[in-house]
């Protein structure tokens, strides 16, 4: 039969059989890898909406800055931005394996990758080289990593918070608002999906899956048979091994 | 002769004689008290622009929250909001004389006045009574007083920072952005004035001076002869007595 996914995304796909109105299903091109079809409406959709909804970036020549760049959203941001000619400045954690993480992100198209400790300098903008000051920043970490995004932003720039991995709040100086005219906002995909944008959602899914099929949007997933669900859960929670996205097969 | 003030506001009015293009002067109705004409383009203009530029408040039935409510901007916000049927929730410092400050603000039209310690409760919104949750907040203090403004805001609300009297930064939780969808922005009058809004500026001056003339916009000023400039300076800096706005007369 056909491959379909619910669009707009809904819960309840973890079912052997389900009958629903035809209108809630979106047919998927089978030439696209199944694991991308299964995950496209989560992290890649978040990345795409955040690129579109906040700041009108020039199609080429602008830049953005993000922390948590190794996350799947972060990886998608790098690739989607690169596809439009937008440069990315990426901030990652200091940890073992950060050199490898840096090379992986550069292979995806990242222009600059810094670990937090590398940004412990007086003027982070001196590290930008030829890149323009970013007008848009994404924060999924909080704490110091959020402050670093703010430091990179140009006057009048916007930082969008979509996660808080460090569990630390965001601290902002008064001058950032008054003299640098920064704006801080939030993004939550569920909110966007609740706006009833059925048509836009399907167009975005096709766009993203097209990029995935053509090898222009990549992120690591691991297909796991249902029988190995407990192991997949441990991996997803970081208890075992690395943490590629776990996709259960039936 | 006529009374004039430079519009848009410019520096260099501290002069006995000055010759400039007629176009930079705005003629003032002499029935308006001189001390208001001299100060109208500073704090009252800030209050008016902040009310207009960020959130479309319903002409009646909406509310806003602000800290630093005893400042002249704060007093103007209360009166301009009241004039439009917008309720105000006002946060003041804990200090001797705060009861008197509360009564003064209520006399200007404040709906609710809380000292910071009164807001040390689990759910500040339980204190709103019949007032709607505010969609707009003004922060000129930072630190805990800014967090209190954020706590009062309704989902999707906006906090505008225009000062940092406590010299402490603003701390924001990740959930405020993602799940409460708050926006944080800044306001600086100098920036607005640099946008070349000559006509709007004159209309606002006339509007505000009209309110002042009719007794609908009040704030305390003290007229000081030029000879007493050193005392005026000490008062303005808070070294002597209370701190009404010092207006020098020649």
Automatic annotation (TrEMBL), chains A, B:
One of the GO BP terms on file: fatty acid metabolic process
Q: Which UniProt keywords apply?
A: Mitochondrion, NADP, Oxidoreductase, Transit peptide
Lineage top rank: taxon: Eukaryota
Q: Report the locations given in the UniProt record.
A: Mitochondrion
CC per GO annotation: mitochondrion
Q: Ranges for the Alcohol dehydrogenase-like C-terminal domain?
A: 73-205
GO terms assigned for molecular function: oxidoreductase activity
Give the family this protein belongs to, as stated in its UniProt record: Belongs to the zinc-containing alcohol dehydrogenase family. Quinone oxidoreductase subfamily.
The protein's name in its UniProt record: BnaAnng29560D protein
């Amino acid at each position: 039969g056909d491959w379909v996914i619910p669009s707009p995304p809904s819960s309840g796909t973890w079912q052997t059989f389900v009958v629903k109105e035809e209108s809630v299903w979106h047919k998927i091109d089978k030439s696209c890898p199944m694991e991308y079809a299964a995950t496209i409406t989560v992290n890649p959709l978040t990345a795409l909406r955040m690129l579109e909804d906040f700041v009108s970036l020039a199609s080429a020549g602008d830049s953005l800055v993000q922390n948590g760049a190794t996350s799947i959203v972060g990886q998608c941001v790098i690739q989607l931005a690169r596809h439009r000619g937008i440069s990315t400045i990426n901030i990652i954690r200091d940890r073992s394996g950060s050199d490898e993480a840096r090379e992986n992100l550069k292979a995806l198209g990242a222009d600059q990758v810094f670990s937090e400790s590398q940004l412990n300098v007086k003027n982070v903008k001196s590290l930008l080289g030829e890149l323009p000051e970013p007008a848009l920043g994404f924060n999924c970490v909080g704490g110091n990593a959020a402050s670093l995004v703010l430091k990179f932003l140009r006057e009048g720039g916007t930082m969008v918070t979509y996660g808080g991995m460090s569990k630390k709040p965001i601290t902002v100086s008064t001058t950032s608002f008054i003299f640098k005219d920064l704006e801080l906002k939030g993004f939550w995909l569920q909110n966007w999906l609740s706006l009833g944008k059925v048509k836009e959602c399907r167009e975005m899914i096709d766009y993203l899956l097209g990029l995935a099929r053509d090898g222009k949007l990549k992120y690591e997933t691991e297909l796991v048979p249902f029988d190995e669900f407990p192991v997949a859960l441990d991996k997803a929670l970081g208890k075992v091994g690395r943490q590629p996205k776990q996709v259960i097969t039936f």
